[in-house]
């Protein structure tokens, strides 16, 4: 090829608008020892024709988990007395309902500079420096109890008295740290002028997805406002249609059809989405999430999906949910987070044309 033809070809490539999928950087959060799950994820990747990077999750026996747990206890001990678990209607003095400082004589719970930093290129730290100053210890590490709202500490006397979903186990701390580490990486990556990799899609390693997920995402993304932070492609334990559809009456024919989802799933304003098996964040959304999720005493205060749900409920994060789900947990092995070796949760979901679902129906 002559230099003139090469230059022309390169210019055409540079001028070509990015395909939607080029804007998406996909991460799969996975424990390094979960080779069976990674093998299955490779089958899923090949079926969908996608590329993703595996992000090594931290195991619950890592000494850092013990340090984080000790740090959480120190942060809590520096606060006022915990609430009695029998009076869950009370508010901790450090909490001010939705974080806007509505309670008299109570300073705002959240730092005032979050929005400014979210829109900047300032690097955001993953952990408080005081975590690293704590001594390391050997596992097993003790469970704590989960907080509610901004910083409601419920006194169950001991973590053993708390229901399973309110126990802040080492596995839940490890899950929080694994997800927030991916978000930290995306939040601190400088944006590309072309928009390449501007969206992070974060998956867990036990998901199934619709075969047309990319086409559906591209159509749904046309409905999103420019200032979106988060989109749940999969969720559980919540009726996300309560938030109302983003597009009230999607057209079924005509040119407008190209600018709205018509494949089956619709986009709704999030209400209280749980589970973290498939969600997307914008770069600004990742930065806003990171600033909230690393803020003492909110950091590592509960299961990470409960934290996401609270930030959505309290209006701190602008989030949307896809209904029906485009991705679901397969529930083919015991949960890495729930105690007792249970097979994930009792929440059941189905896909219209899931990759693994169709493989089970047509194995050959």
TrEMBL record:
Task: Write down the InterPro entries for this protein, in alphabetical order.
Answer: Glyco_trans_25 (IPR002654)
Q: Which domain of life is it from?
A: Eukaryota
Annotated Glycosyl transferase family domain residues: 162-295
What residue spans carry the region label Disordered? Answer: 82-106
- A Pfam short name: Glyco_transf_25
| Protein name, as recorded | Glycosyl transferase family 25 domain-containing protein
Organism of origin is Psilocybe cyanescens
Taxonomy, top ranks, is: Eukaryota, Fungi, Dikarya, Basidiomycota, Agaricomycotina
């Amino acid at each position: 090829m002559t230099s003139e033809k090469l230059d022309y070809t390169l210019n055409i490539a540079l001028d070509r608008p990015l395909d939607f999928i080029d804007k998406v950087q996909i991460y799969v959060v996975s424990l390094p020892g979960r080779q069976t799950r990674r093998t299955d994820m490779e089958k899923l990747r090949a079926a969908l024709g996608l590329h993703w990077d595996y992000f090594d999750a931290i195991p619950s026996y890592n000494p850092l988990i013990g340090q984080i747990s000790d740090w959480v206890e120190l942060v809590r001990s520096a606060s006022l007395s915990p609430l009695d678990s029998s009076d869950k209607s009370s508010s901790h003095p450090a909490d001010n309902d939705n974080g806007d400082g509505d309670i008299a004589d109570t300073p705002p719970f959240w730092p005032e500079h979050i929005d400014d930093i979210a829109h900047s290129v300032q690097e955001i730290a993953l952990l408080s420096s005081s975590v690293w100053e704590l001594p390391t210890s050997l596992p097993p590490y003790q469970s704590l109890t989960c907080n509610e709202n901004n910083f409601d500490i419920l006194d169950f006397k001991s973590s053993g008295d708390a229901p399973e979903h309110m126990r802040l186990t080492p596995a839940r701390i490890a899950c929080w740290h694994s997800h927030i580490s991916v978000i930290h990486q995306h939040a601190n990556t400088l944006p590309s002028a072309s928009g390449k990799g501007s969206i992070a899609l974060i998956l867990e390693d036990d998901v199934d997805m619709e075969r047309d997920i990319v086409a559906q995402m591209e159509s749904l993304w046309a409905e999103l406002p420019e200032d979106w932070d988060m989109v749940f492609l999969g969720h559980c334990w919540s009726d996300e249609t309560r938030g109302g559809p983003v597009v009230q009456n999607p057209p079924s024919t005509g040119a407008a059809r190209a600018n709205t989802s018509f494949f089956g799933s619709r986009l709704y304003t999030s209400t209280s989405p749980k589970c973290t098996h498939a969600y997307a964040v914008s770069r600004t959304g990742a930065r806003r999430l990171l600033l909230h999720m690393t803020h003492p005493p909110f950091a590592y205060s509960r299961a990470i999906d409960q934290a996401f749900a609270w930030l959505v409920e309290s209006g701190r994060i602008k989030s949307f949910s896809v209904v029906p789900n485009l991705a679901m947990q397969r529930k083919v092995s015991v949960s890495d987070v729930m105690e007792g070796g249970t097979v994930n949760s009792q929440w059941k979901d189905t896909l219209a044309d899931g990759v693994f679902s169709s493989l089970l129906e047509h194995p050959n």
